[in-house]
Amino acid sequence: MPAQKNGGTLQDGSKQNKSRRQKSPFPRAVILTTDIGAEMDDQWTLAQLAVAPEFDLRAIVTTHAPSLQNPAAETAARFAREVLDHLPLKKHPPVFAGSSVPLAERSAPQPNRAVEFIIEQSKSFSSGRRLAVLMTGAATDVASALLIDPTLADRIEIVAMGFENWEAGGDSWNVKNDVRAWQIVLESRAVLTVGDARVTRRDLAVTRTEARKLLGTRGIAGRYLADLHGAWLDRDPPFVEKVTGSRDKWIIWDSVTLAYLLGLTKNKTYPRPILRDDLSFEHSSSAKKSATLNWVTAINAKKLWRHFTTNLDRINAPVNFNLFHSSDNDGHKNRSISADTKNS
Known about the structure:
- This protein has helices at 13-23, 41-51, 72-85, 113-122, 140-148, 179-187, 197-203, 208-215, 219-235, 237-244, 256-261, 301-316, and strands at 9-12, 28-34, 55-62, 95-97, 131-136, 156-161, 191-195, 205-207, 249-251, 265-271, 274-275, 281-282, 292-299, 321-327, 333-339.
- With 344 residues, the protein is of the alpha/beta class.
- The strands form 4 sheets. It has a 9-stranded mixed β-sheet, sandwiched between helices. Strands 8-9 form a two-stranded antiparallel sheet.
- It is globular and about 50 Å long.
- It starts with 8 loop residues before the first strand and ends in a 5-residue tail after the last strand.
- The model is unreliable at 1-10, 13-22 and 323-344 (pLDDT under 50).
């Protein structure tokens, strides 16, 4: 990405995230906010997050989107539970339906159980060890939490998928679905990283053949996720072509958030822009030097998908019982059972 008039410091993702892991060692506590069900990429992101040993998924907070049946957050919650039901997990993280509508006013939060949970969970964290909040849908619930408890900003790190690009801002979905909420997030002092549509469109597009090769033979979960990808392509081919330039591929937009936490991105640090009501950015020359954000400029998709498939294989691997006999001191035979593999 070309340098902007406000400047930008290039950062190598692996070095940057290595430093973060030293402060917040894996497994990293994470809350996912998502408009799952609006497109199919949310399902892939949730599945990869849920099976990754690097993360402690504390909860899924579902958000609103205009394409979800009302009440939107409740509909999204059903999609989230469907994904979890396809994964061989020992324990499912809780799913909270957040707000089904955007903020009515910038000064008026919309309290709900999801907002309360975000605040409650954050209280065991600090500026030196932050709770990661992945924002892959409308920002309504995160913004409400920040309005109710402004000190939340000192205990969380927000990693979001949104905007078209750094230069202009702009957005056709996540930010557009609650501009007021995003203005609150940008004006907060929370640590913030953004992966935009331009970068994810370039680096995280997956064809039908690639989806089948990646996931189609990896158990019930893999087949389910590969089928979701194919069904999305078949749902509205002209729309798919308009977005991607092809009827045979779709972008796994939201997985940029996981890539960042895993150290699989390159990033730049910029002064934090002002978000106008029309979704454009104002890059103010008077912006405080301390008010910055990280912007993802490249994603290592090959390593990201390898991480996903490796963990699907791990959770799908059958328990291998090795039966063997050993003699005790009395000459009797005892049978021992050892498990080589444990499911997540």
